[in-house]
Specification:
Rossmann fold; 2 domains; binds S-adenosylmethionine
Length: about 190
Amino acid sequence: MKIIKLEIVMIIILIIILVISIIVTLMTLSLIIGLIMTGGVPFISTSKKDFQNILEAVDLKPGEIIYDLGCGKAHLLIYAAKKFGAKGVGYELTLWPYLWAKLKIYLTKANVKVFRQNFFKADLSQADVVFCYLFPAVMAKLEPKFSKELKSGNRLVSYAFKLPDKIADKVVITNNDHAELGKIYVYNY
Ligand SMILES: C[S@@+](CC[C@H](N)C(=O)[O-])C[C@H]1O[C@@H](n2cnc3c(N)ncnc32)[C@H](O)[C@@H]1O
């Protein structure tokens, strides 16, 4: 009897290990495919302790619409919706942060929408504020899109990486130890 019980426990443990391995493999695969789809921009979350600094730097107001281009798990957008009364819109190509974002939005009931779409194809005409945490090469490619689509009064806030040609109207240096990750660039259009 004891041996049968022990066997059942062993089988349950093996099933749990198998399920965890499958989930980890799928997450890793999704990140690798995401890297290929985004041309090498990895999924790395903005440091939570900088959410407030970023949204204060860009002076986000209640009712404004903030876009996060490459929103990852949409944590910044959820924060902006909950703490600043803004509406969030995110674009994310990598599957598992996108699914995580959908789940988090559902659970928190935050006023945020996310799309599994390439942000180069996004229409920015409804945005009041655009947030980016990307790479210098991607910022360079986005700069003409911003010049074309962002209207007077719109703001762009970029974490860590600046636009190559436009001069930032404000640079906030946070207490982060890392030289680039500590910088927040704000551009007024
Ligand atoms: C450094 S992470 C930033 C995540 C999030 N914005 C944050 O601050 O926590 C950049 C994200 O952009 C996504 N990404 C890169 N290029 C993209 C594209 N063209 N369209 C949609 N998402 C993209 C990547 O999948 C990645 O999750």
